[in-house]
């Protein structure tokens, strides 16, 4: 996709037109192959592709999703055709579409996403393996049986009477499918764009068959006058209801998961400079899928669903609206009338090989890696085996049952231990959720604690139900009555606030609690000896930059403890996002320039994550004026890189209360000429001190109150001055003039945990040093009000 997104109506139409051709070339052979695999009339696949593209494309809620006959429904549809016949299967498709319309009216689309991914991927893997084994018989020159066990039992006999011509055509198709994406170089890239792998494989196999004069079964499209339309459902009522629900379940879940995946692809493309696309409306998408199934079934087509392969190709080809999917449906419709003679030249062995490869791709190894990493292999395997041996609905039911059992297993296996640190006290640790299922084990462990001892109960789970609460409460009361002492803490050593009869240990656990709280026992390692704090005269030791509290745990142990906590708790949650950032590179929208003070946690106060902020930290959040850096151009380099390369949209200068640099600057004044590195660096703040002295009574304010003292006034003034220094950097001034960059001032009061912002317009005025602008006002940011 080009970095320049289409903007004019002509460019957008051209992008959609090109993408529709690419998707059509993929959809045509796949639709015929899926119809062949189900045992339906081959025209039914073309009808479903056309209806899915036009109807679902027009009414659906995922503009770039392509709908049509999908491999995920192949096994279900084949079973229905074998059991009820083709005309009743069409009626079942109509009823499934009506059910989808009813579900969309109830707005329950997102509930389909609560199904465990292990179940969904296991279902697709089972369907894919079933398809592959069945189509292998066609590639060998025979006919598939009704089930996987029957196909496997028949395979030795089929191998004994294989058709060499069919095998050769199938092998050629598979080879092209596997080798086509490996074409390299500029020429290979152009070839792959002009002809998708599926179309290339079928075209080459058809050409070889025709040129070699091979006598093989070929596509047979019956006359439209003989096209079968739906008939009245006949059969057991419960069986028909189960059939409708099965089609509804598989089609809906696959469509909605595909819509979510396409949404992510479109968002990623937008970050790279592609055209914006509205987010998917899942309830509307379910409504569009339902309407498409009603129309497809009524016209004698296969059931349809959102198809990930075609949708991915649509996004990759540059589609920008739903017109692409609608046009692709129109091309399929034209092909059914104009290309009948060409389509009837395709050997069935080529289509069977195509569908066999698609089926094997549905059981991709990457899905197995994902479920293994999340310890859900049992659920995946049970669902896959169930679908292969029993059927889709039965396999999904087995998968759900396994998922429930696995969840109960995890709930009942909360790890509860007790140990003695060696000072006569006891420590009871409970790792995991404490529910009624864990109460027997909890009671046994607590019963082993001797009477009259000091006990610390450490809870690291995120949930505590009433039964566990009562057990802990009653035991603590009894233990205290017998002369003991009990302290309940969270997993990081944070004591619970405890009224006389309450256990209030449900406060959120912060990631640094594991070593930052005063009540935590000393970490192993040599005792840390705090060096004497050295601060400028008049500076507050507790707030001075570089000051050290009287006693802290060993720094190395703190760091290792934090790293262990990150790897065990946070890394699994952010691994996918960081992997995406590693692939795509950083695209932060903001440069955040702030102080190096350890109490200022930028990601916390801005609620930002990886890739959001390009952060520059230094003592005093200073921005040296160009030409005064005295050899240290690191800040200027970071500013230039952020503005010219990363193209950030805003730069924020953030000061904070109790800044040690401002205290030292105020104490030393502008006449200090120390030769140390800190003194030389603080010279870049002299302009802030001079500005404050010149302001007199016009010092900056916080909301409607003046600065609390001279240090706070200097901290606020320094923010204004450093914003002005930003405008002296040529790249910043140019971007501000062009309207692509906003400057902002910010102040964070550490003791109040309160952020104050000088809005963008105000920051711009202050940067000019307008003497008539009046005192600057930093406005507090409230939970329900976003300032600036």
UniProtKB/TrEMBL annotation:
Its cofactor is Zn(2+). GO terms for biological process: transmembrane transport. It is found in: Membrane. It is a multi-pass membrane protein. It comes from the Bacteria. GO terms for cellular component: membrane. Residues 527-548 are annotated as: Disordered. The chain crosses the membrane at residues 17-37, 84-106, 118-140, 165-183, 195-217, 237-262, 331-358, 378-408. This is Transporter. It comes from Streptomyces calidiresistens.
């Amino acid at each position: 996709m080009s970095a320049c997104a289409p903007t004019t109506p002509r460019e957008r139409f051209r992008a959609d037109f090109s993408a529709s051709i690419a998707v059509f070339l993929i959809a045509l052979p796949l639709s015929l192959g899926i119809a062949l695999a189900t045992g339906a009339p081959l025209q039914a696949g073309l009808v479903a592709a056309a209806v899915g593209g036009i109807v679902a494309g027009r009414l659906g809620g995922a503009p770039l999703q392509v709908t049509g006959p999908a491999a995920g429904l192949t096994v279900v549809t084949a079973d229905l055709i074998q059991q009820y016949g083709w005309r009743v299967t069409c009626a079942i498709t109509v009823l499934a579409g009506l059910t989808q319309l009813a579900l969309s009216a109830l707005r329950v689309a997102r509930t389909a996403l609560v199904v465990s991914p292990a179940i969904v991927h296991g279902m697709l893997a089972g369907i894919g393996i079933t398809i592959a084994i069945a189509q292998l018989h066609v590639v060998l020159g025979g006919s598939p049986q009704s089930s996987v066990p029957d196909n496997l039992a028949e395979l030795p006999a089929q191998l004994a009477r294989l058709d060499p011509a069919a095998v050769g055509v199938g092998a050629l198709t598979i080879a092209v499918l596997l080798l086509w994406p490996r074409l390299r170089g500029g020429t290979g890239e152009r070839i792959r764009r002009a002809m998708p792998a599926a179309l290339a494989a079928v075209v080459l196999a058809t050409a070889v068959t025709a040129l070699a004069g091979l006598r093989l079964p070929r596509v047979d499209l019956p006359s439209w006058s003989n096209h079968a339309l739906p008939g009245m459902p006949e059969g057991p009522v419960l069986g028909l209801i189960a059939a409708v629900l099965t089609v509804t379940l598989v089609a809906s879940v696959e469509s909605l998961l595909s819509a979510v995946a396409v949404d992510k692809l479109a968002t990623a493309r937008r970050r790279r400079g592609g055209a914006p696309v509205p987010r998917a409306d899942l309830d509307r998408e379910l409504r569009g899928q339902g309407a498409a199934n009603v129309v497809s079934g009524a016209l004698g087509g296969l059931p349809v669903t959102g198809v990930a392969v075609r949708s991915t190709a649509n996004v990759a080809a540059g589609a920008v609206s739903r017109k692409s999917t609608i046009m692709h449906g129109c091309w399929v419709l034209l092909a059914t009338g104009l290309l009948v003679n060409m389509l009837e030249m395709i050997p069935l062995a080529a289509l069977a090989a195509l569908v066999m490869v698609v089926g094997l791709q549905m059981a991709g190894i990457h899905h197995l890696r994902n479920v293994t990493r999340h310890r859900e292999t049992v659920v995946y395997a049970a669902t896959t085996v169930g679908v292969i041996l029993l059927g889709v609905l039965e396999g999904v039911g087995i998968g759900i049952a396994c998922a429930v059992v696995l969840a109960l297993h995890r709930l009942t296996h909360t790890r509860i231990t007790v140990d003695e640190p060696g000072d006569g006290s006891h420590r009871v640790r409970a790792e995991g959720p404490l529910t009624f299922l864990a109460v027997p084990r909890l009671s046994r462990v607590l019963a082993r604690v001797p009477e009259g001892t000091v006990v610390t109960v450490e809870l690291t789970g995120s949930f505590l139900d009433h039964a566990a609460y009562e057990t802990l409460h009653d035991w603590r009361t009894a233990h205290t009555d017998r002369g003991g002492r009990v302290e309940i803490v969270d997993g990081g050593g944070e004591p619970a606030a405890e009224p006389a009869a309450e256990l209030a240990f449900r406060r959120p656990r912060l990631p640094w609690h594991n070593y930052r709280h005063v009540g935590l026992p000393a970490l192993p390692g040599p005792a840390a000896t705090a060096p004497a704090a050295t601060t400028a005269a008049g500076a507050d030791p507790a707030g001075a930059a570089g000051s050290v509290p009287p006693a802290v745990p060993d720094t190395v142990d703190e760091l290792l403890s934090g790293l262990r906590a990150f790897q065990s708790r946070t890394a699994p949650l952010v691994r996918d996002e960081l992997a995406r950032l590693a692939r795509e590179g950083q695209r932060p929208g903001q440069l955040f320039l702030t102080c190096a003070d350890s109490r200022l946690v930028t990601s916390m106060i801005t609620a930002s994550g990886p890739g959001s902020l390009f952060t520059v930290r230094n003592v005093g959040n200073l921005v040296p004026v160009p030409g005064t850096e005295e050899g240290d151009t690191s800040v200027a380099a970071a500013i230039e890189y952020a503005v010219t390369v990363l193209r950030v949209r805003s730069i924020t200068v953030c000061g904070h209360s109790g800044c040690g640099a401002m205290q030292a600057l105020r104490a030393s004044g502008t006449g200090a000429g120390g030769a140390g590195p800190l003194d030389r660096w603080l010279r870049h703040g002299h302009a802030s001190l001079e500005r404050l002295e010149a302001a007199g009574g016009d010092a900056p304010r916080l909301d409607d109150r003046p600065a609390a003292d001279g240090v706070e006034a200097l901290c606020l003034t320094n923010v204004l001055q450093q914003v002005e220094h930003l405008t002296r950097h040529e790249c910043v001034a140019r971007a501000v003039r062009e309207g692509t960059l906003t400057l902002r001032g910010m102040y964070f009061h550490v003791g109040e945990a309160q952020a104050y912002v000088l809005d963008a317009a105000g920051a711009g005025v202050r940067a000019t040093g307008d003497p008539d602008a009046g005192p600057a006002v930093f406005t507090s940011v409230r939970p329900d009000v976003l300032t600036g």
